[in-house]
Design brief:
Elements: H1 4-13, E1 32-33, E2 58-61, E3 64-67, E4 72-73, E5 77-81, H2 83-86, H3 90-102, E6 107-111, E7 123-125, E8 129-133, H4 135-150, E9 154-160, E10 164-166, E11 182-184, H5 193-208, E12 224-230, H6 250-267, H7 271-274, H8 282-304, E13 310-312, H9 325-328, E14 334-340, H10 359-362, E15 371-378, H11 388-400, E16 404-411, H12 430-433, H13 436-444, E17 454-457, H14 461-466, H15 475-480, E18 485-488, E19 509-511, E20 525-527, E21 533-536, E22 541-545, E23 549-554, E24 559-562, E25 566-570, E26 575-581, E27 592-599, E28 601-605, E29 610-613, E30 618-623, E31 629-631, E32 641-643, E33 646-650, E34 659-663
Parallel strand pairs: 5-6, 5-16, 6-9, 9-12, 12-13, 14-15, 15-16, 17-18, 17-19
Antiparallel strand pairs: 1-29, 2-3, 3-4, 7-8, 10-11, 20-21, 21-22, 22-23, 23-26, 24-25, 25-30, 26-27, 27-34, 28-29, 30-33, 31-34, 32-33
Length: 664
C-alpha cells in the first residue's frame, strides 16, 4: 500500500491538491498545490484580435492610443524577461503565447534581453564585445514574436536595459568609469558621444534585424508598437548625482560641469546651483534640458531607421517627482514603474507617511498624453495580500484612462517546467494567477467607467522645480486619484524653449493647493465619483459594483456583502471574490459568468514550488438567468441551488480551484 506521504507527492506531481481538517483546531487544512506555468486557466483569448498588427501601427492622439484603422487601442500587458526569453524551448514558446492570451494579455514587453546576468543574452559574447548580436538568440526572439502575434499579442521592445560595456567596445575614456573591464553606462550616456554612438549602433542592429519567420525587420513590424530608449536611466532624480566631483569619474564630470556652467550662463541662472544635481531649483531645469537633447538624438535615429511606432525615452521610477516630467513629456507616451510593499487596502490617503503604490502612476499622468505602467507589482514575495493589486490596478486604470498596465513580470525563468517562486514570475504564482483573468476582463472590456470629473494639477515653472512635488508631499494627489481622474499640466518654462505647454481639457477642475485634503476629515473610505467602486481603508475592503463586474476583496471574515447581483458571506480573513459577465451582457442577463476566488497563499517549499492555499469557505449567491450550470474549468458540473432567481453556491466546493463558471 502507498503511504499517505507518497500519495500526496503523486497528487502534487499531477498538479492536484489535497484538503483535510486539522486534528486540533477542527479548521480546514490548507490544500497543497504544485503550480506549473502550464496549469489550466480561464480562456480569455477571445478578447484578442488576431493576428496582432492587422490594424496597422499604434499612434498617440491626445491622451489615447489609436490603431491605424482609427479604432481605440487598450493594452493589458506582461513583461517577458531574461532567461525566459532565450532558454524556453520552441515548443513551449507557442504554448506560453497561448497561455498569455488565455490570461487576457494583449501586450508583452521584451525585457532584460541585454543584461550580463542573462546567459545567453542578445549579444554574441558580451564578455568580449557588446557590438555583435547573437543570431541564435535573435532567432529565438523571432519565435516568441511570431507566436505572440499569432495569438493577438503586441510587442514592446527595450533598447538598453542591463548592457555593460567592455574594453573591446572601444568607448572613449573607458578607464574613467570602468571597473575590472566593465562599464555601466547609466547617467554617463547623456554626456558621452561615444556611448551614444554605441547605443545608436545597437538600435540599428536590433530594429534593423529581419525576422527570419516573417521577413519583416523589427522596425517595420506593426505589431511592435513601442520602443523604450533606455530603462530606468534618468538624470533628474537618480543618475545626475553620478557626475558629481566626489563620484570618481573625472573625465565625464568635467563634461557635466562645463555643460552646467554654459547652461547657467546662457539663461542667467546661478552657476553654483545649476550643477548641484541633488538640489531642487536650477539644477532640475538643466538636467531636464540635457535629457531632452539626448532623447531627441536617440529618437531621431530610430525615425531614420524607419521605425514609426511609439517611442518612450525612459521611465518615471523609484519615486520620481513631478519635476522629472518635462523632458519625458516630449515623447509619445509617459511610462511609469511602481512597486509597493503591499497592495494598499489599509493605506489612509490623508496620512503623509502612507503612500499608495498606484498614486505614483497618477502623479505622472501628463495631461493630453497616453500613459503606460511597464512595471508594477508587490515586493517582498510572498506578501499575502499580493493578489489584491491586480484588481486595484485594473479598476484604477480603467477609471483614470491609463493606457497600458504591464505587470512585472510573467516570467524571467525558462518556461519549460516548474518555476522557483518569485515576484518576477507570476506564471507560477497561484496567488497572482487567481485574479489576473478577472483583472484583464474588467480593464479591457471597460467594466469600470472612466471618471466623471478631471482634476488638473496646475503649477508655475517656479513651483515645478522649486521643491519635491510627489505623492509623498502632496495631500491633494493622494486624496484625489481614487475619486476622479487626475492629470498634471506642463507650464511654460523660459529656459526650456522646446517644452510644449500642456493645459487640461475644458471643464477640468484646476488644483493649485497641493496640501488640500479632498476627503472629509473623518472619512474612512474613498469612493469613485462614478459610485462604481470604493476602498474602505478602515475595514480594508475593496468593492466594485458595475453591470458586468461585481466583486469584494480584502478582509471578508464574519461579514455579509450584498450587491445588486451577488450576495456573499465568506468566513475568510483575506480573500477576493469576483463575479463577471463573459458575454458582454449584464450579469443578471448573462449566460456565461466567470467566478474568480482568491484566498491567502503560503509558500511551503521552494524547490519544487509547493504552495498551501487557504480553502474557500462561505456562501456566494449570484442573480442570473435560469438554466445555467455551475462547472469547474474542466467542464465538470458542480452543485448549485437555483432559488427565486439566485444561484446559491457553497464556496467550499472550490477549495481546489480558483475559477468556476455559470453557463449553459
Amino acid at each position: 500500500m502507498l503511504s499517505l506521504k507518497k500519495l500526496l507527492w503523486i497528487l502534487l506531481a499531477f498538479g492536484l491538491t489535497t484538503a483535510g481538517v486539522h486534528a486540533q483546531t477542527g479548521q480546514p487544512e490548507w490544500p497543497l498545490r504544485q503550480q506549473k506555468p502550464y496549469s489550466l486557466v480561464p480562456d480569455l483569448s477571445f478578447l484578442n484580435e488576431k493576428p496582432a498588427g492587422a490594424k496597422g501601427r499604434v499612434s498617440a492622439e491626445g491622451d489615447k492610443l489609436i490603431f491605424e484603422d482609427g479604432t481605440a487601442a487598450r493594452f493589458w500587458g506582461a513583461n517577458l524577461q531574461a532567461n525566459a526569453l532565450f532558454s524556453t524551448k520552441p515548443a513551449h514558446i507557442k504554448l506560453q503565447a497561448k497561455r498569455l492570451a488565455a490570461l487576457g494579455f494583449n501586450l508583452v514587453r521584451i525585457h532584460h534581453h541585454d543584461s550580463t546576468w542573462v546567459r545567453p543574452n542578445v549579444f554574441k559574447d558580451h564578455t568580449q564585445s557588446t557590438r555583435h548580436l547573437n543570431l541564435a538568440s535573435m532567432r529565438t526572439l523571432d519565435l516568441w514574436i511570431e507566436a505572440l502575434k499569432a495569438d493577438g499579442i503586441y510587442i514592446w521592445l527595450d533598447m538598453q536595459v542591463g548592457r555593460r560595456l567592455v574594453t573591446n567596445d572601444n568607448v572613449d575614456a573607458f578607464d574613467d568609469f570602468a571597473k575590472n573591464g566593465i562599464g555601466w553606462l547609466h547617467g554617463l550616456s547623456y554626456f558621452s558621444p561615444s556611448i551614444q554612438n554605441l547605443m545608436k549602433e545597437f538600435q540599428g542592429a536590433y530594429l534593423g534585424y529581419e525576422n527570419h519567420l516573417s521577413g519583416l525587420r523589427y522596425a517595420d513590424d506593426p505589431a511592435v508598437i513601442a520602443v523604450l530608449l533606455t530603462n530606468e536611466n534618468d538624470l533628474t532624480h537618480h543618475y545626475g548625482n553620478r557626475l558629481l566631483p566626489d563620484k570618481g569619474y573625472p573625465h565625464h564630470m568635467e563634461i557635466y560641469l562645463s555643460a552646467a556652467q554654459s547652461f547657467a550662463q546662457e539663461h542667467g541662472l546661478s552657476k553654483w546651483q545649476t550643477w548641484r544635481s541633488w538640489e531642487y531649483g536650477p539644477s532640475k531645469i538643466f538636467l531636464n534640458d540635457v535629457e531632452h537633447h539626448f532623447f531627441s538624438g536617440m529618437s531621431g535615429d530610430l525615425r531614420q531607421l524607419g521605425y514609426e511606432g511609439l517611442i518612450i525615452p525612459t521611465n518615471m521610477w523609484g519615486k520620481m517627482p513631478v519635476s522629472s516630467l518635462p523632458s519625458l513629456s516630449m515623447a509619445s507616451m509617459i511610462d511609469v514603474h511602481s512597486y509597493g510593499e503591499a497592495a494598499g487596502l489599509s493605506i489612509n490617503p490623508t496620512k503623509i507617511e502612507q503612500v499608495d503604490v498606484l498614486s505614483w502612476v497618477a502623479s505622472s499622468h501628463v495631461t493630453n498624453m497616453p500613459i503606460s505602467i511597464s512595471e508594477w507589482n508587490v515586493l517582498r514575495f510572498p506578501t499575502l495580500d499580493r493578489f489584491l493589486l491586480p484588481l486595484r490596478m485594473a479598476t484604477l486604470a480603467a477609471h483614470q484612462g491609463w493606457d497600458a498596465p504591464i505587470i512585472y513580470g510573467y516570467a524571467q525563468q525558462p518556461l519549460n517546467g516548474a518555476l522557483i517562486p518569485s515576484n518576477w514570475d507570476v506564471a507560477g504564482d497561484p496567488s497572482m494567477l487567481s485574479v489576473l483573468p478577472a483583472s484583464a476582463l474588467m480593464y479591457r472590456r471597460q467594466h469600470v467607467r472612466p471618471a466623471e470629473k478631471t482634476y488638473a494639477l496646475r503649477l508655475s515653472a517656479e513651483q515645478l522645480f522649486r521643491a519635491e512635488i510627489s505623492p509623498k508631499t502632496s495631500t491633494a494627489i493622494r486624496t484625489l486619484f481614487e475619486q476622479s481622474a487626475l492629470v498634471i499640466e506642463m507650464p511654460t518654462v523660459p529656459e526650456l524653449p522646446w517644452l510644449r505647454p500642456r493645459k487640461a481639457p475644458p471643464g477640468s477642475i484646476i488644483v493649485n493647493d497641493l496640501d488640500r485634503n479632498f476627503l472629509d476629515p473623518d472619512a474612512h473610505e474613498v469612493i469613485a465619483d462614478t459610485g462604481e467602486f470604493l476602498r474602505n481603508f478602515k475595514d480594508e475592503i475593496m468593492r466594485v459594483s458595475t453591470d458586468q463586474t461585481q466583486l469584494f476583496a480584502g478582509r471578508l471574515a464574519g461579514q455579509v456583502f450584498d450587491l445588486e447581483n451577488i450576495y456573499l458571506h465568506a468566513d475568510l480573513p483575506l480573500a477576493a471574490v469576483a463575479v463577471q459577465s463573459l458575454d458582454g451582457q449584464k450579469i443578471e442577463n448573462s449566460r456565461e459568468i466567470l467566478i474568480s476566488l482568491s484566498t491567502r497563499t503560503r509558500l511551503e517549499k521552494e524547490r519544487p514550488a509547493i504552495f498551501a492555499i487557504e480553502p474557500a469557505q462561505g456562501e456566494l449567491r449570484v442573480k442570473a438567468v435560469p438554466g445555467l450550470t455551475l462547472r469547474n474549468l474542466r467542464g465538470n458540473p458542480l452543485p448549485a441551488v437555483f432559488d427565486a432567481g439566485w444561484y446559491r453556491i457553497d464556496l467550499g466546493i472550490a477549495s481546489d480551484q480558483n475559477w468556476l463558471k455559470l453557463a449553459e
